[in-house]
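pasting for ref
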Amino acid sequence: MKPLLLWAIALLCRFSSLAQNDSVHRLSFKLSLNYHSHLNYYGRTDSLKSTGFFPLAELWIRNKFYVNAAPVFVSNARQTMAYAGTVATAGYLRSSEKWLTGLYFTRPFYKATSPLVQATLKGQAGVSVTRLQKLVNLNIGGDVKFSEQTDWGASAGLDHLIRIDNRDRSAWIVDPSFYTYFGTQRFAHSYTQKQGGLLFLPGREDQVTEQVRRFSVLSYEVAVPIIFVKNGWQLAASPAYTIPQHLVTYADRPELSEQGSNLFYISLSVKRSF
Protein backbone atom coordinates (compact mmCIF):
# COMPACT_ATOMS: atom_id res chain seq x y z
CA MET A 1 0.00 0.00 0.00
CA LYS A 2 0.82 3.61 -0.25
CA PRO A 3 2.03 5.41 2.86
CA LEU A 4 -0.65 6.28 5.40
CA LEU A 5 -0.82 9.92 4.33
CA LEU A 6 -1.13 8.93 0.67
CA TRP A 7 -3.98 6.56 1.43
CA ALA A 8 -5.89 9.45 3.00
CA ILE A 9 -5.13 11.70 0.02
CA ALA A 10 -6.14 9.04 -2.50
CA LEU A 11 -9.42 8.34 -0.74
CA LEU A 12 -10.08 12.05 -0.42
CA CYS A 13 -9.30 12.93 -4.04
CA ARG A 14 -10.66 9.82 -5.70
CA PHE A 15 -14.15 9.98 -4.24
CA SER A 16 -14.86 13.44 -2.82
CA SER A 17 -16.22 14.81 -6.08
CA LEU A 18 -18.40 11.72 -6.48
CA ALA A 19 -19.68 11.68 -2.91
CA GLN A 20 -20.62 15.32 -2.58
CA ASN A 21 -23.75 16.84 -4.12
CA ASP A 22 -23.61 18.74 -7.35
CA SER A 23 -23.84 22.22 -5.86
CA VAL A 24 -20.65 24.20 -5.44
CA HIS A 25 -20.10 25.63 -1.97
CA ARG A 26 -17.66 28.43 -1.32
CA LEU A 27 -16.50 26.71 1.85
CA SER A 28 -17.14 23.27 3.27
CA PHE A 29 -15.71 21.55 6.30
CA LYS A 30 -15.29 17.82 6.85
CA LEU A 31 -14.23 15.71 9.82
CA SER A 32 -13.34 12.04 9.70
CA LEU A 33 -12.01 9.24 11.87
CA ASN A 34 -9.70 6.78 10.11
CA TYR A 35 -8.24 3.42 11.05
CA HIS A 36 -5.51 1.39 9.35
CA SER A 37 -5.12 -2.26 10.38
CA HIS A 38 -1.44 -2.64 9.41
CA LEU A 39 0.72 0.40 8.73
CA ASN A 40 3.12 -0.10 5.84
CA TYR A 41 5.14 1.85 3.31
CA TYR A 42 4.68 0.17 -0.08
CA GLY A 43 4.58 -3.15 1.79
CA ARG A 44 7.52 -2.27 4.04
CA THR A 45 6.64 -2.59 7.73
CA ASP A 46 8.16 -1.99 11.12
CA SER A 47 9.02 -4.96 13.32
CA LEU A 48 6.16 -4.15 15.74
CA LYS A 49 3.36 -4.57 13.17
CA SER A 50 1.75 -1.26 14.11
CA THR A 51 -1.83 -0.23 13.50
CA GLY A 52 -2.80 3.41 12.98
CA PHE A 53 -5.63 5.74 13.93
CA PHE A 54 -5.95 9.34 12.80
CA PRO A 55 -8.69 11.98 12.89
CA LEU A 56 -8.65 14.17 9.78
CA ALA A 57 -9.97 17.73 9.42
CA GLU A 58 -10.53 19.09 5.88
CA LEU A 59 -11.37 22.58 4.64
CA TRP A 60 -12.58 22.78 1.03
CA ILE A 61 -12.89 25.91 -1.12
CA ARG A 62 -15.37 25.58 -4.01
CA ASN A 63 -14.92 21.80 -3.90
CA LYS A 64 -11.56 22.22 -5.65
CA PHE A 65 -8.95 23.53 -3.24
CA TYR A 66 -8.41 21.89 0.11
CA VAL A 67 -6.20 21.86 3.17
CA ASN A 68 -6.25 19.18 5.83
CA ALA A 69 -4.39 18.02 8.90
CA ALA A 70 -4.27 14.71 10.74
CA PRO A 71 -2.57 13.76 14.01
CA VAL A 72 -1.42 10.13 13.72
CA PHE A 73 -1.65 7.68 16.63
CA VAL A 74 0.10 4.31 16.56
CA SER A 75 -0.61 1.11 18.49
CA ASN A 76 1.56 -1.99 18.72
CA ALA A 77 2.91 -4.50 21.23
CA ARG A 78 4.87 -1.78 23.06
CA GLN A 79 2.44 1.12 23.12
CA THR A 80 -1.24 1.95 22.72
CA MET A 81 -2.52 5.05 20.94
CA ALA A 82 0.89 6.74 21.06
CA TYR A 83 1.15 10.05 19.22
CA ALA A 84 3.55 9.64 16.25
CA GLY A 85 3.21 13.06 14.59
CA THR A 86 0.96 15.21 12.44
CA VAL A 87 0.53 15.25 8.66
CA ALA A 88 -0.69 18.40 6.85
CA THR A 89 -1.69 18.59 3.17
CA ALA A 90 -2.72 21.28 0.68
CA GLY A 91 -4.07 20.34 -2.72
CA TYR A 92 -6.22 20.93 -5.76
CA LEU A 93 -8.80 18.61 -7.29
CA ARG A 94 -10.54 19.07 -10.63
CA SER A 95 -13.09 16.69 -12.11
CA SER A 96 -14.96 16.58 -15.40
CA GLU A 97 -16.93 13.99 -17.31
CA LYS A 98 -13.78 12.31 -18.62
CA TRP A 99 -10.91 13.47 -16.40
CA LEU A 100 -9.98 13.62 -12.73
CA THR A 101 -6.82 15.57 -11.87
CA GLY A 102 -5.23 16.13 -8.49
CA LEU A 103 -2.23 18.06 -7.18
CA TYR A 104 -1.02 18.01 -3.59
CA PHE A 105 1.81 18.92 -1.24
CA THR A 106 2.17 17.10 2.07
CA ARG A 107 4.27 18.10 5.07
CA PRO A 108 4.66 15.47 7.80
CA PHE A 109 5.80 16.39 11.31
CA TYR A 110 6.75 13.01 12.79
CA LYS A 111 8.33 12.61 16.21
CA ALA A 112 11.97 11.57 16.24
CA THR A 113 10.98 8.41 18.13
CA SER A 114 8.21 7.44 15.71
CA PRO A 115 8.34 3.73 14.74
CA LEU A 116 6.84 4.39 11.27
CA VAL A 117 8.98 3.38 8.29
CA GLN A 118 8.13 6.69 6.58
CA ALA A 119 9.07 8.82 9.61
CA THR A 120 12.16 10.19 7.83
CA LEU A 121 9.94 11.83 5.20
CA LYS A 122 10.11 15.64 5.38
CA GLY A 123 7.76 16.51 2.53
CA GLN A 124 6.08 15.16 -0.58
CA ALA A 125 4.52 16.69 -3.68
CA GLY A 126 2.59 14.81 -6.33
CA VAL A 127 0.19 14.82 -9.24
CA SER A 128 -2.36 12.25 -10.40
CA VAL A 129 -4.41 12.03 -13.60
CA THR A 130 -7.33 9.67 -14.23
CA ARG A 131 -8.99 9.06 -17.58
CA LEU A 132 -12.59 8.16 -16.73
CA GLN A 133 -14.16 5.54 -19.00
CA LYS A 134 -17.15 3.21 -18.82
CA LEU A 135 -15.21 -0.04 -18.92
CA VAL A 136 -12.01 0.77 -17.04
CA ASN A 137 -10.38 3.96 -15.73
CA LEU A 138 -6.71 4.60 -16.46
CA ASN A 139 -4.62 6.17 -13.67
CA ILE A 140 -1.11 7.56 -13.64
CA GLY A 141 0.70 9.59 -11.02
CA GLY A 142 4.08 10.93 -10.03
CA ASP A 143 5.62 12.35 -6.88
CA VAL A 144 8.81 13.66 -5.36
CA LYS A 145 9.75 12.85 -1.76
CA PHE A 146 11.99 15.04 0.36
CA SER A 147 14.05 13.67 3.26
CA GLU A 148 17.82 13.76 3.71
CA GLN A 149 17.86 13.15 -0.04
CA THR A 150 15.32 13.53 -2.83
CA ASP A 151 13.52 10.50 -4.23
CA TRP A 152 11.09 10.13 -7.12
CA GLY A 153 8.01 7.95 -7.40
CA ALA A 154 5.39 6.97 -9.95
CA SER A 155 2.25 4.88 -10.12
CA ALA A 156 0.05 3.31 -12.77
CA GLY A 157 -3.26 1.59 -12.26
CA LEU A 158 -6.62 0.41 -13.52
CA ASP A 159 -9.97 0.57 -11.78
CA HIS A 160 -13.65 0.13 -12.53
CA LEU A 161 -15.90 2.57 -10.70
CA ILE A 162 -19.43 1.49 -9.78
CA ARG A 163 -21.95 3.93 -8.29
CA ILE A 164 -25.43 2.94 -7.19
CA ASP A 165 -27.85 5.76 -6.33
CA ASN A 166 -30.73 4.90 -4.00
CA ARG A 167 -34.17 6.49 -3.82
CA ASP A 168 -33.46 7.92 -0.35
CA ARG A 169 -30.62 10.05 -1.87
CA SER A 170 -27.94 7.76 -0.50
CA ALA A 171 -25.34 6.10 -2.72
CA TRP A 172 -22.93 3.17 -2.81
CA ILE A 173 -19.55 3.51 -4.49
CA VAL A 174 -17.39 0.44 -5.22
CA ASP A 175 -14.05 0.71 -6.98
CA PRO A 176 -12.04 -2.52 -7.53
CA SER A 177 -8.55 -1.48 -8.59
CA PHE A 178 -5.03 -2.67 -9.32
CA TYR A 179 -1.94 -0.47 -8.96
CA THR A 180 1.80 -0.72 -9.50
CA TYR A 181 4.06 1.65 -7.55
CA PHE A 182 7.57 2.67 -8.59
CA GLY A 183 10.28 4.64 -6.83
CA THR A 184 13.96 5.32 -6.35
CA GLN A 185 15.86 3.20 -3.86
CA ARG A 186 19.25 3.83 -2.25
CA PHE A 187 21.46 1.08 -0.89
CA ALA A 188 25.10 -0.01 -0.54
CA HIS A 189 26.48 -2.61 -2.94
CA SER A 190 29.67 -4.45 -1.97
CA TYR A 191 31.93 -6.54 -4.19
CA THR A 192 35.48 -7.85 -4.29
CA GLN A 193 37.96 -6.20 -6.65
CA LYS A 194 41.35 -7.65 -7.49
CA GLN A 195 44.22 -5.17 -7.52
CA GLY A 196 47.73 -5.49 -8.90
CA GLY A 197 49.39 -8.80 -9.66
CA LEU A 198 52.21 -9.28 -12.14
CA LEU A 199 53.33 -12.52 -13.79
CA PHE A 200 53.51 -15.06 -10.97
CA LEU A 201 53.04 -12.51 -8.21
CA PRO A 202 49.56 -12.61 -6.67
CA GLY A 203 47.61 -9.42 -6.44
CA ARG A 204 45.46 -8.34 -3.52
CA GLU A 205 41.71 -8.43 -3.21
CA ASP A 206 39.92 -5.37 -1.85
CA GLN A 207 36.36 -5.10 -0.63
CA VAL A 208 34.67 -2.22 -2.47
CA THR A 209 31.38 -0.66 -1.36
CA GLU A 210 29.41 1.63 -3.66
CA GLN A 211 26.28 3.65 -2.99
CA VAL A 212 23.68 2.65 -5.57
CA ARG A 213 20.51 4.45 -6.61
CA ARG A 214 17.94 2.67 -8.76
CA PHE A 215 14.38 3.27 -9.96
CA SER A 216 12.34 0.09 -9.63
CA VAL A 217 8.98 -1.43 -8.79
CA LEU A 218 8.22 -0.99 -5.07
CA SER A 219 4.94 -2.90 -4.82
CA TYR A 220 1.81 -4.22 -6.48
CA GLU A 221 -1.55 -3.68 -4.84
CA VAL A 222 -5.11 -4.91 -5.31
CA ALA A 223 -7.85 -3.04 -3.43
CA VAL A 224 -11.65 -2.81 -3.34
CA PRO A 225 -12.73 0.49 -1.73
CA ILE A 226 -16.41 0.52 -0.72
CA ILE A 227 -18.12 3.80 0.25
CA PHE A 228 -21.63 4.56 1.47
CA VAL A 229 -22.85 8.18 1.36
CA LYS A 230 -25.99 9.69 2.89
CA ASN A 231 -26.99 13.08 4.30
CA GLY A 232 -23.48 14.39 4.67
CA TRP A 233 -22.14 11.14 6.11
CA GLN A 234 -19.58 8.97 4.37
CA LEU A 235 -18.61 5.45 5.50
CA ALA A 236 -15.66 3.81 3.76
CA ALA A 237 -13.89 0.46 3.93
CA SER A 238 -10.93 -0.41 1.75
CA PRO A 239 -9.63 -4.00 1.97
CA ALA A 240 -6.36 -4.41 0.09
CA TYR A 241 -3.57 -6.86 -0.61
CA THR A 242 -0.07 -5.54 -1.23
CA ILE A 243 2.94 -7.39 -2.65
CA PRO A 244 6.25 -5.58 -1.95
CA GLN A 245 9.04 -5.84 -4.50
CA HIS A 246 12.83 -5.34 -4.43
CA LEU A 247 13.26 -5.19 -0.66
CA VAL A 248 16.72 -3.89 0.21
CA THR A 249 18.50 -6.41 2.45
CA TYR A 250 22.00 -6.61 3.93
CA ALA A 251 23.60 -9.89 4.92
CA ASP A 252 24.11 -10.12 8.69
CA ARG A 253 22.66 -6.61 9.14
CA PRO A 254 18.93 -7.06 9.76
CA GLU A 255 18.68 -3.64 11.39
CA LEU A 256 19.56 -2.05 8.03
CA SER A 257 17.38 -4.32 5.92
CA GLU A 258 13.84 -3.55 4.79
CA GLN A 259 11.14 -5.75 6.30
CA GLY A 260 8.10 -6.72 4.32
CA SER A 261 6.01 -9.57 2.92
CA ASN A 262 2.73 -10.04 1.11
CA LEU A 263 0.18 -8.33 3.32
CA PHE A 264 -3.59 -8.08 3.63
CA TYR A 265 -4.90 -5.03 5.47
CA ILE A 266 -8.02 -2.92 5.72
CA SER A 267 -8.58 0.83 6.05
CA LEU A 268 -11.78 2.19 7.61
CA SER A 269 -13.15 5.74 7.63
CA VAL A 270 -16.19 7.60 8.99
CA LYS A 271 -16.64 11.13 7.64
CA ARG A 272 -19.09 13.95 8.27
CA SER A 273 -19.47 16.94 5.92
CA PHE A 274 -20.75 20.29 7.18
